[in-house]
Amino acid sequence: MRKLTYYVATTIDGFIADPDGGFGFFPEAEDMVRVLNSERPETVPTAFRGPAGLDGVANKRFDTVLMGRGSYQPALDMGVASPYRHLRQYVVSTTMGEIADPEVELVSGDPVELVRRLKREDGLGIWLCGGGKLAGSLLSEIDELVIKRYPVVIGAGIPIFSAPFRPQLFDLVDTRTFSNGAVVLTYTKK
């Protein structure tokens, strides 16, 4: 069975974006980008794969991506309707009327049912790339968390999870630190 991995960047205080959805404040480091791109090249948007030296590099961990509207919107703002052409793409939103690109499927129904159906299919893993509301609604279905925790506090923004109180336990299975002070933490569901 395929697994759902929430692979996301966050601040020390638990935000994945500023209050307006921006995320340009995360301090990048060459060593971190190199390692993470080699491990999960498919998480680099199609438009940036060439400059990153990833053209033609096969997907290693994921063949499917799930996005909330807020995670999808930056691509639309750049005029890109299909940000991850090398993956099956789903946007979960109850506020979008349609998506102009047939490579991206709009899901206005229950994301839990979608994930359960996708997990039963053959293939690589499913990447939940954001956002906080979608992650909160899928918390019971998340099998793995890969949290890129950056050394920055922003005070307010979009939380990594937005959900009712219902504790879920995970085991820490890997920790790595990079030159910018960021820590990548990998957890699996207990």
Contiguous low-pLDDT stretches (5 residues minimum) are: none
Total of domains: 1
The CATH homologous superfamily is termed Dihydrofolate Reductase, subunit A
Computed over alpha carbons, the radius of gyration is 16 Å
**Percent in strands:** 25-35%
Named at the architecture level, the CATH assignment is 3-Layer(aba) Sandwich
* Extended strand count: 10
Pfam family, one: RibD_C
Domain Bacterial bifunctional deaminase-reductase C-terminal: 3-183
Organism: Microtetraspora malaysiensis
Protein name: Dihydrofolate reductase family protein
Kindly describe this structure.
This protein has 190 residues and is α/β, with parallel strands linked by helices. The chain has one domain: Dihydrofolate Reductase, subunit A (3-Layer(aba) Sandwich). Helix content is 21%, strand content 29%. It is built from five helices and ten strands; from the N terminus they run ββααβαββαβαββββ. The protein has helices at 30-39, 46-49, 69-77, 111-120, 132-137; strands at residues 4-10, 15-17, 62-68, 88-92, 104-107, 125-130, 144-149, 158-159, 170-177, 183-189. The strands form two sheets. Strands 5-4-3-6-1-7-10-9 form an eight-stranded mixed beta sheet. A two-stranded antiparallel sheet has the order 2-8. β9 and β10 form a beta hairpin. The chain is globular.
